[in-house]
Amino acid sequence: MVVKKIKWSSILPSCYKPVHPSKTKKVVAKQTSFQRISISDLSYPSTTLSEDLSISLAGSNLHVFTLAELKVITQSFSSSNFLGEGGFGPVHKGFIDDKLRPGLKAQPVAVKLLDLDGSQGHREWLTEVIFLGQLRHPHLVKLIGYCCEEEHRVLVYEYMPRGSLENQLFRRYTVSLPWSSRMKIALGAAKGLAFLHEAEKPVIYRDFKASNILLDSDYTPKLSDFGLAKDGPEGDDTHVSTRVMGTQGYAAPEYIMTGHLTAMSDVYSFGVVLLEILTGRRSVDKSRPSREQNLVDWARPMLNEPRKLGRILDPRMEGQYSEAGARKAAALAYQCLSHRPKQRPTMSTVVKTLEPLKDFDDIPIGPFVYTVPAAKDLQSKEDAKEGQGQKEQRKDSQKKENGGHHHHHHHHGHQRHQPRTPKSPSFYSDTALRQNGRNGMQMQSPLRQMGRAAA
């Protein structure tokens, strides 16, 4: 198997030499008839394709930063500015001064460095630049710029102060998300996916999960990390054939089995995240009893049963949710998680279903509350009780005279039986996938080890 080596100097000339003023004029002229470039266009790059890519990136208002500038922005990637680490590499917070670039406002940013020894590589870095450099939407994280200097590959994004949905849902010491915020996040994330699927040149996200949904200060969600994104099928094609990549617990079963990737693969992953939002549980949690370790296998059978639904909803909400809204959201998750892709709804249908749920009030579905009656009501109740007692005494004496037997039913009649917990369905592990690290890092198929072949 021959893998053609891509020369970075030919693909991103602006990383190695400055863009001349004459080329800038060409950008403005050519941008009007621009068509989005995809990663597949770069498999065997020619001079024309290299020019097209640099033009598309220049026309999308991306800034090309130097490594020296990024060191100033992040205080030399100081550990005090460290935000976290994923499959791509470490992420640091930084601050851009308004004097750094003309037209670039002062703002906090997140700076992501490609770890050369990590699970993602140059191809994923380039994919991220291509997609986020050309796609703009309120529910996609904004890519401000990049750095491609010698072996360094860095991405600069808008800073998202609330971190990821994963942190908000599962971190032990955070305040539980209220129902309205959960529905707002689910709706916004669904709008982001629907935008990708319905673009003129459709995009399959392929790695939809709680850690890739970032939240701004008012919990508006934005999709991030487009390293595994793929252009969707074109013409009469029904799917894209590709190596199996994604994260354990989120990937659609038909994609795992066949490698056939469709927009419905994303819909399944959305169903998993919606289930996490409803239950407050991770998609895969090895610390739970074996039957509850795979969230979909355990919870899906109960989603369509209103009497059992309360058992799986996140107890941290303490009953503060809309019962009708929870039923509708659970029914939607059930559809998205269908094993038959054709039975799953499109993301635009998902958006329409979720739209009204964000306005459902957080209604307490808690224990019975006893209201103290007025003194006047208490007196009348006492009188009635006394009259009833006299009547019962008369009945008893009458029965004794007739030689009858008085049966004591009151204990049995009011005895409450606690509902038994149903047996959970068996846990089936996705043997086709393996887990990389505790935070759901990228999984790779064995094909990945054979080189950077085009997916």
From TrEMBL:
A Pfam family for this UniProt protein? PK_Tyr_Ser-Thr
Q: Where is this region: Disordered?
A: 376-455
Q: What are the Basic and acidic residues biased-composition ranges?
A: 378-404
Which EC numbers characterise this protein's activity in its record?
A: 2.7.11.1
Q: Where is the composition biased (Polar residues)?
A: 421-447
Transmembrane parts of this sequence: none
Q: Where in the cell is it found?
A: Cell membrane
> GO biological process annotations for this chain's record?
defense response
Instruction: Specify residue ranges for compositional bias: Basic residues.
Output: 405-420
GO molecular function terms attached to this record: ATP binding; protein serine/threonine kinase activity
- The enzyme class is transferase
- Gene3D superfamilies this protein is in? Phosphorylase Kinase, domain 1, Transferase(Phosphotransferase) domain 1
Question: According to the lineage, what is the superkingdom?
Answer: Eukaryota
Q: Which SUPFAM superfamilies match?
A: Protein kinase-like (PK-like) (SSF56112)
Q: Which GO terms describe its cellular component?
A: plasma membrane
Q: What is this protein called?
A: non-specific serine/threonine protein kinase
Q: Which organism is it from?
A: Carpinus fangiana
